[in-house]
Every structure is written in C-alpha cells, then in structure tokens.
Amino acid sequence: MLKGSREKLGAVLIAVAGLLGVIVLFAQGAIPQDTAYHDFKDQRTIMGVPNFWNVLSNLPFLIVGAIGFYKVTISDRLKIIINFRIAYGLLFAGTALVSLGSGYYHLWPNNETLVWDRLPMTFAFMALFSIVISEYIFVDLGRRLFVPLVIVGVASVAYWHVTELRGEGDLRFYALVQFFPMLAIPIILLTFRSMFTTASGYWWLFVAYLAAKLLEHFDGEVYSLLGFISGHSLKHVAAALGVYVLMVSYQRRIGAE
C-alpha cells in the first residue's frame, strides 16, 4: 500500500505517463524503421573493419558489463537486493551483450542485424526498470514484474522484426518499451523513498542516456565539428559511462535507515 501523498502522486504520474505514451504512439499509424537510420556519417573502413569507430566504440559496454556482472555474481561487492541478484546480473549481462549485438550490427547495418542490437538493450532496460521498482516502491512488485517485463521487451523487438519482414514495419511497441521506463524512472526517483542512501547513480545514468540520444541525433554535426569521431560513436561511450557510474554508486551506497 502506498503510504504518503507524494507516493500516491508518483503512482498517478506514472499511470498518466503510460497512458499518454500509448495514446500518442497508437493514435497514429504503424511506424516503420527508416532505412536512413543505417546511414551513419562515419563509415570509414580501418584495418579492414567497416564502420570502424562505430564498431570499436562498443567495447566500453563489454568492459563495464563484464565487470558489473562479476561484481554481482562473484565478488559480492555491490550493495544490491541480494534475493533479486538475477535482475542486477541481467542489467550488466545485457550491457555486455549490447557490445556484441551493436558491434555486429555496425559491421553490416541493416534491419536484420539491428535486431541483435536492440534485443540485449531490452534486457538491460527491463532489468533496470524492475530494479528501480524493487528499490523504491515494493521489493515483491519488482520481483513479480521482472520476468513479464523481460518477456514484453523481447516481444517488442520480435514484433517489430516480424512486421518489417511482412513489409508493414511497426516500431510503436518497441518505442513504448524503451521510452516509458525512462519517463517512469525519474518520477519514481522523485516521489518514492529508496531502501538505499543515494539515487545519484540513477540520475547520472539518466543524464548519460539523454546525452547519448543527443549525440545520436547530431551524429553528422559532431563528426563535422570534431573531424575524427562521430556522434554515434560517442553515443556508445556516453551510454557505457552511465552504466559505469551506476555500478560505482551500487558499490558506494549503503542501506537507508
């Protein structure tokens, strides 16, 4: 049961955000994947590797994800909900798998390879969402939603892929799965009380996510400005840095009184 008026406000805002997201997305027709999405500014082949920097810039995901997964499963150095270790493990495993999936996609950018980029991202997004729900709202609620959220995430990618194969591409379900948690999580952070002492890691992750989206949008402009690396490559670095800061915050925080 929600105790305070602020928590009740948070629950209402989350429900409104979800409802508005569904209305905005599904009030319009199907949204196919724009093939121009695959036309990145920096397409240089270096040492025989096409789109070299867009491929190589995924390495931070592998490093951060592997370290985080090790700390969750073996070293036991992170302050997490112990009986919900599987979600934290999937968050970091998904991050590491993004490196492989995104690297593969950027070698041959097309809708078929993009599936393997987006699939591990849904693992990380849904794991993160269930973790925040557990830490801030109810532990049992996050645990109960964990598997359904992961299934929904996978289904959103599968649905988009199948509709593209049928010539009726529709990104709306996937867009809702990616963006709704990023709307809901700040509301949760502001209106619910954590079982741990600090929310800074989540806020820095949110800032890194916004920075990554901006770098992705201004891919060409960043490349023209810097001349040696593109916005899309830096997007990977920014997103991985956000996960790294979150991992460090897990290590430094303590349980709230």
From TrEMBL:
GO biological process: ceramide metabolic process
Membrane topology: Multi-pass membrane protein
Annotated Zn(2+) binding sites: H106, H232, H236
Segments passing through the bilayer: 12-31, 51-74, 86-107, 119-138, 145-162, 174-192, 199-216, 222-247
This protein's UniProt keywords: Hydrolase, Membrane, Metal-binding, Transmembrane, Transmembrane helix, Zinc
Top-level taxon: Bacteria
InterPro entries from the UniProt entry: ACER
GO molecular-function terms, A-Z: hydrolase activity, acting on carbon-nitrogen (but not peptide) bonds, in linear amides; metal ion binding
Cofactor(s) needed: Zn(2+)
Subcellular location: Membrane
GO-annotated cellular components: membrane
Protein name, UniProt field: Alkaline phytoceramidase
